[in-house]
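WARN retry 2 of 3 for item q-0093 after timeout on previous attempt; input resubmitted unchanged.
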Amino acid sequence: MRWLMPAIASVLAVPLSSGCAIDKGTALAADFEKDWAGTADVARIHTTKNNTLPFGGTATGELVLAEGTSADVVSERVDELRDYVARHSNITGRITADGITFTVVAEQRRTREVLALWGSLTADDDVVGGDINDASRKNTHGWRSEITAVDATGAMVVFKDMVSDGGRHRPLSDATSLTVGSARGVRPGLSVRTGFDGTLPTEAIAAYEAVVAEHPVVSAGLHPDRLTIVVAKGADPVRAGELAKSAAPGLGDAVEVRSDRR
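OK item q-0093 returned
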C-alpha cells in the first residue's frame, strides 16, 4: 500500500477550482472580482460570501457604477450581469447606480422590470436612495424594496406612486414588500411599510393623514397592522389619538399616539 501515499499526496496538492473548492463561497467571490475587474464604468466591486462546508457556498457580487454613468450604459451592464448570473447559479448579482442598488436576476422579464423602476426612481426628485432586492423563494418570485425619500411628504408620495398603477413608478409585478422612509435625521420623519405579503397600510395612512391635517407631527411609523405617531410638544396627543383611532377603527389598540419628549 506504500505506493498509494505519493498518489494521494499529489491529488491533495492540486489547487481546487471554484467548482469544488472547500470554501466555495470565497472562491465564487474571488472569481466575480476577477471576471469583472477592469470593466468600463465600474468604479468599485463589492463581494460577500457564504461558505457552506464541505464544498458548498454562495456569493454576492455588486458592481458600483461610476457617478454620471448614462442610462444606456447602465442597461448594458445589467444585460451583461444578467447573462453572468444565468451562467453562475450560485452567484447573486447586484448593481448600484445613482444611489439605487438593485438585484439583477437571470429572468429577462423581471430584470427589465427592475431596471425600469431604477430609471423612474433616479428621475424622481423625491427619491435620494434605495435598495431593491430579490426576495424569491422556492417556486415563488418576489422583490423587497426599501426606498429613501427626501422628507415625510416625499415618502408618502413615493409610497403611493409605487403601489398604484397611475403613479410615476410602475409597480413590480412580483413585488412582495415595500418600505419608503424619509432620509435619516430629517424631521418630521416618516416610514410607510407594506406587510411582508404586500398588504397595504390603508387604515394607518388614513389615520396619519387625519392627524397631520390638524397637528404637527414629529415622526410616524405606518404598518398594515399598527400605527405609531409622535406629535410635537404643545400638541394634544389625546385629541390626536382620537382622530387616529376614528380614521383607523380596524387597528383598535394598535394605534399609539404620544407627545415628543425632546
